[in-house]
Amino acid sequence: MRFCARSASRVPEALIARGVQMALDASLCAIALLAAYELRFDGAVPATHRQVMWALLLLLPVVRPLLMLALGAYDAIWRFFNIRDAAVFAVSASPVSIVLLSVRYFLAARSGGTVVPASVVVIEFGLYLALGAAIRIFRRVTWEASRPAEMRRYRALLVGREATLSQAVRQAADSSEIELVGLLAPEAKLQGLRIGGVPVMERPAALGRLLVSHRIDLVLIADAGREWIAETVATASEFGTDVRLLPSAASVVRGEVRVWGKATPESAIARANLDEGAVTPSHPHARVVENFSDRVVLITGAGGSIGSELARQVATLPIASLVLLDRDENSIFELSNELAAGARQDERPARVTALVGDIRDAAHVRSIFEQYRPHIVLHAAAYKHVPLMESNACEAVMNNVTGSRLAARAAVNFGAERFVMISTDKAVRPSSIMGATKRIAEMLVSAEGQKQKTGDIAPTRVASVRFGNVVGSRGSVVPIFLRQIAAGGPLTITDEHMTRYFMTIPEAAQLVLQAASLASQGDIYMLDMGNAVKITALAHKLIELSGLRPEKDIKIQFVGARPGEKVAEQLWHTEADVQATEFPRVFAVKAEATPAALNAAIEALEMAAQARNEAAVVEGLRRMPIGFVQLQTKAAAAGAQSPSAFVN
Q: Is the whole model's pTM more than 0.85, yes or no?
């Protein structure tokens, strides 16, 4: 079969065109007629019947294909030959045999001479149907066998009712990517039977057990009710299995189901198509390649959403080695394995070192810089969740301020070429603990840059890179919305008028690497985030991308702003000096002079954080020259703990 499949895949389309199909059917007519005579007369056809046989042999192979063409038998594509096509084939082939029988009885009654035996007509028709169907089935089988074997096949379970399973089985069978393992149906009479050759294994309640025992990758729902969809999605989500709906054509026509692609974090943000030859994560800018070439790169917070994507993109550059630092051992373990597998696939050295550690541990940070001597430091380690940090101010200061100070100071002391800290738009006129600590961290980095200008220490290019929300990152609004949609809603939004700037994770990491290639001495780089997106519009779009209708299929609920949240964010101060750079989507916000008493104020703030004095930390942040005004929302005053999406 494999040889036949390979041969069939090499057959030019011209050889299976309609004219060739008619010629094949004509040949089968001749073979069927000769075989019918041989069978009727046991291999010894009388001379009187031979004349009739030769006459029919000239007539039948011409008339039958032409009549079948007129009746539409050749409109069917042979590689998709099915039962309906077989019925059309049989009906279009029968008129010739019916006419032949009629003529035979008419001539026999009138002349009494030699006529074609009725048994020959019947045998010929049966043989022709068998041969014609066989060649069409052979074409379909060889075509299906020639489809790419290397394509991954997803092991799937199909959930549905008796009325919907048959069509869904045919629909799934047409996909080369699906291996249908079994069916789940609630009807007791179906248990143990087969539909379309696929066994009905269990009732839907057994889904969880079968997902594990049969290593299922995908669950398909055959046009079931909404209560089934919610229950099936909930069970599959517990086991990390994807779910897809296979609606019937009638449901689509009636408007009960809207057909759309799968909603993803990336699909939520509409971007203009890149021009041909544009810089992408897989094709980095030449300046980035040059600056990272043969360098040791250290990434802190490498297990996070941004840190891990930075690691993926840096690993493809011609670096000397990559050092990953994070205190979450699981994320570092998974990332280092992923990078090692990618290196093997691309046939390049892995050059990755995974370290578990805390950037607040000064001795450990110093030992890492002393041992590995990184040339470039990408500092992504930070606490970022706005409402959570409102009640964890001490931890926010120790991680975002102390950790950043230790990392930046070590980079300068050990002669690193570049130090880049990942910041946030929430550092502009901060209204939250998280935003305030990141603004202080920006000021620390700027202060280090200003020291380079005075020549106090060996030159290290230091900068902060500020951008807004990253779709798809852990805890961001889009994954939360997608989980709420999968659960049947409602989508919870803090404020009807709330807007945010968004960017995809690969975009952000790519632009960070570009910013890291610039010659900065304490500047803040701002990434082009496009236009602000209204969160309500984003929710509507995600619902529609999921094939559902806002407010009809999925409700939207406004729960009130949470502690520290703004209705709208700013990318920079209105009085800031913003300049273009050589990278079109990276802008420089020139560094301001840092206050003389900054170090003393930060030292007092860190001491309060180490003493776990939350009130003193909050008061210290208010006194810092950063314009911090802590928001007190109605939701916070009421102690609201609803599971609304954190718009971080």
A: no
